[in-house]
TrEMBL record:
GO terms for molecular function: phosphorelay sensor kinase activity. Its EC number is 2.7.13.3. This is histidine kinase. The modification 4-aspartylphosphate is found at residue 62. The keyword DNA damage does not apply. Residues 178-422 form the Histidine kinase domain. It holds the Pfam family Response_reg. It catalyses: ATP + protein L-histidine = ADP + protein N-phospho-L-histidine. CDD domains: HisKA. Residues 13-129 form the Response regulatory domain. It comes from Methylomonas denitrificans. InterPro entries: CheY-like_superfamily (IPR011006), HATPase_C_sf (IPR036890), HATPase_dom (IPR003594), His_kinase_dom (IPR005467), HisK_dim/P_dom (IPR003661), HisK_dim/P_sf (IPR036097), Sig_transdc_His_kin-like_C (IPR004358), Sig_transdc_resp-reg_receiver (IPR001789). Keywords: Kinase, Phosphoprotein, Transferase.
Length: 429
């Protein structure tokens, strides 16, 4: 058997449409060894067959037919998404260039004059089927690639969210350690003061007990009086009189420090609300500084130069997160001992908060990448590279922007600009 006839194209289905049954019979017999052949003697019948199974892979279409002509048939095929991709070859006795042009402009892939050499017809059919297969393959590949891109995009988003989550947890852990340290300190000296006071009270009660016993002695002997004086001396009652109020004042101060830290923590987190409101940026900066003070104080001195700024409409706890990220970055850029300056000011309808450091600065080639998620120059486990990207998102949400200037080896300056009234609030009344 001719190997050609065994090829994959043999599986293809060709629909022959012609009102002359002699043509159908000649073409049909010639093509039958190569393809599955369907025949239709009218346009209407052809349209019925394309809706059934097997769906034709290619249509040989006569132009001049009674009722619906070939141009009308192709018009309907091209208008239907289910049949638009079936290649159509016109096989016609109309031999004018104009007719050929019309056929091709309607979407036919080829135009063959009758009568034609059957082997040429076969070659043209093969070419068109190969083209169709290639097109179908490309379409499948495209669909596969699109699905793959979509799947990977979703996968990336899931990883991104997971990283954000672990970044948040790490930040909370770090903060918690800092806060524990800050609270531990006053708690430590309050509890040591209570121990001292306990000892003092025992001494005071010993003197009081001795006084009580002396009161029962009648008459009071000189010896008892002498003993009392000596006991008072020994227990340093005069010293206790001065030290006890000091210990109490110190303990009160320690407890109020703990209370302030907890209040700052509440302010920082704004745990109870996440609404837009008129916020005081200086208050936000101060409570943020108190929260991360522990992280900063061993490395740098913080200098505050607050200007006159109005309150702004904002999400205060989110802005605090921005300040925290900038301050921690500044501190991390300082290797041993350095300075951080926090300045604020106002221009037109905007306020700005600037955090500058004299740390190691940023290489010029890194400047354009700072706000990319996951861009970090810090060692593994130290930075995730999300701080600035999160901060930029928050600032953009407020209708603001972050400006950066830096000199390698000299330090960096991050200036956050925020509109007093973000755009979504519309103009002030
Ligand atoms: N003040 C600064 N001085 C020097 N380099 C900085 C400063 N702020 C940011 N950078 C550079 O920008 C990079 C990205 O900062 P970002 O805050 O986004 O991530 P990170 O600090 O590396 O990690 P993360 O904030 O997630 O812990 C840093 O790795 C660092 O190279
Ligand atoms: Mg950071």
């Amino acid at each position: 058997m001719d190997p050609d006839k065994q090829s994959a194209e043999r599986q293809a289905t060709i629909l022959l449409v012609d009102d002359e049954s002699i043509n159908l019979s000649v073409f049909g017999q010639f093509l039958a060894p190569y393809y599955q052949v369907l025949v239709a003697t009218s346009g209407q019948r052809a349209l019925q067959l394309v809706r059934g199974t097997p769906k034709p892979d290619l249509i040989l279409l006569d132009v001049m037919m009674p009722g619906m002509d070939g141009y009308q048939v192709i018009g309907q095929l091209k208008a239907n998404p289910k049949t638009v991709d079936i290649p159509v070859i016109f096989v016609t006795a109309l031999t004018s260039d104009l007719e050929e042009e019309r056929g091709l402009s309607l979407g036919a892939v080829d135009y063959i004059y009758k009568p034609c050499h059957l082997s040429i017809l076969l070659a043209r059919i093969k070419t068109q089927l190969e083209l169709k297969n290639a097109r179908d393959w490309l379409k499948d590949q495209n669909a596969y690639l699109e699905a793959e891109v979509q799947r990977r995009h979703q996968e990336n988003q899931a990883v991104h969210l997971q990283l954000l989550q672990s970044e948040k947890l790490a930040a909370i852990g770090q903060l918690a350690a800092g806060i524990a340290h800050e609270i531990n300190n006053p708690i430590g000296f309050v509890s040591s003061n209570l121990n001292t006071l306990n000892g003092y009270l025992r001494d005071v009660f010993a003197v009081l007990d001795a006084c009580g016993a002396a009161l029962d002695e009648k008459p009071l002997s000189d010896q008892t009086l002498q003993n009392l004086r000596e006991l008072k001396q020994a227990k340093q009652i005069d010293y206790l009189r001065g030290d006890i109020p000091e210990l109490i004042a110190e303990s009160r101060e320690g407890l109020s420090r703990v209370r302030d830290i907890i209040q700052d923590l509440k302010d920082f987190a704004h745990a109870d609300k996440n609404d837009w409101e008129l916020g005081d940026l200086h208050k936000g900066l101060d409570s943020t500084l108190n929260i991360i003070g522990n992280e900063l104080k061993y490395r740098c001195t913080v200098h505050k130069q607050y200007g006159e700024i109005p309150q702004i409409y904002c999400l205060p706890s989110q802005l605090n997160q921005v300040f925290m990220n900038l301050l921690i970055n500044a501190a991390q850029a300082i290797e041993s001992k350095g300075d951080i300056h926090i300045r604020t000011g106002c221009a037109d309808q905007n306020v700005w908060v600037e955090i500058s450091d004299n740390g190691n600065g940023i290489a010029p080639e890194n400047l354009p990448r700072l706000f990319e998620p996951f861009f970090t120059t810090k060692p593994l486990g130290k930075g995730t590279g999300l701080g600035l990207s999160i901060s930029q998102n928050i600032v953009r949400k407020h209708g603001g922007r972050i400006e950066v200037t830096s000199q390698l080896g000299q330090g960096s300056r991050f200036r956050v600009w925020l509109p007093i009234r973000p755009p979504e609030f519309g103009p002030a009344e």
